[in-house]
């Protein structure tokens, strides 16, 4: 047993002399390999330790990786989503409604928590699709953030579905909150732009 280990060790040492050569070969072949395998990661930018992928998904990646973002969610129908001090969720046309200032935080890959800064309630979708403000963070508050083809974001419950259909945060054309069961990804009532504040 002992002897076998020794022999093995010795043979490993003898291979070490080849190591520099192997490394050189590996390094020289790397750029080409990367380019072929990951066309979108061709020119990564490093900001602190986070690699921001440059290419088609740059915006998506930024959204998902941002730590805490202070934003307003501006709907396709031009309402600012607000969560008031009673935990009610609806929209406002006012540009200076303090209840429309939100904090969007990444809690997992592609999953965010959205908290009303003035009300301290989390944007939540209940099991039966009700859009409401939750006092405490819980599974109802886990929202799957995705960028749609028109550049707007959708926020779907990461936990609950209506059968096989996802349930989204939505405001109707009058600025009232929509039940998740009535929402669809393709409907602009579920489309929001995060706006810096
Ligand atoms: C890098 O990290 C520091 C400290 O965490 C932070 O203050 C700074 O804004 C970060 N810079 C970038 C480019 O993200
Ligand atoms: C949103 O709710 C508040 C508080 O109940 C109400 O005053 C306001 O009119 C509502 N906005 C809309 C667009 O329905």
Characterization of this structure:
This is Fibroblast growth factor. InterPro entries: Fibroblast_GF_fam, IL1/FGF. Keywords: Growth factor, Signal. By secondary structure, this protein is α+β, with helices and mostly antiparallel strands. 21% of the residues lie in helices and 34% in strands. It has helices at 2-16, 19-37, 58-65, and strands spanning 45-47, 50-52, 68-75, 80-83, 89-92, 102-108, 111-116, 122-125, 131-134, 143-147, 153-162, 165-168, 192-196. The strands form 4 sheets. A 7-stranded antiparallel sheet has the order 12-11-10-7-6-3-13. A two-stranded antiparallel sheet has the order 1-2. The chain is globular. Mean pLDDT is 79; it is low at 5-13 and 30-65. It binds 2-acetamido-2-deoxy-beta-D-glucopyranose (NAG) (2 copies). One 2-acetamido-2-deoxy-beta-D-glucopyranose is lined by residues 47-48.
